[in-house]
Amino acid sequence: MRHGFWSAYSGELVLTDRALVYVDYGVLGNYMGYTRIDLDEISQVMIGKARNGSAQLEIYHAEGEEDFAFKSGGKLKLGSWARAIEGARSQAFGGASGGIARKAADALGALLRRG
Q1: What's the longest Cα–Cα distance across the chain?
Q2: Most buried pick, 4, 84, 91, 105, via CB within 10 A?
Q3: Which residue, 46, 47, 38, is CA-closest to 16?
Q4: Sign of torsion, CA 67 45 77 110?
C-alpha cells in the first residue's frame, strides 16, 4: 500500500468502525508514523488516477485529500476498499443494518490475504 504519489509501497491501511488509519513503515520495516482519518470527516471516497495513470483510492475529508494505491491488484482491490469504507461510514452514521462494517472488513481481509 502506498500513501501519496512519492511514497514507497511499504504501508498498511486499516479500517475500523471509527476511522481509516494508514500505518507507514520504512523500507526496512521500521515504524515511521500513521495518518488517521475519522469516518465522520470523510466527505467522499472514489477511485481516481495518479499522475502516472495508475488507479488510486482518493479520500476527501475535512482536512484535504489523501491518495492510496496498491503495488498490484489495482481497481479490484481499490473498489473493495471504497465499498468497505462507504459501508463503515453508513454503519457509523446509523444508516445501515448491523454488521455491515464487520462483514466488509472481513471480506476485505480475505481479499488481501489472497493477494
Answers
A1: 42
A2: 84
A3: 38
A4: positive
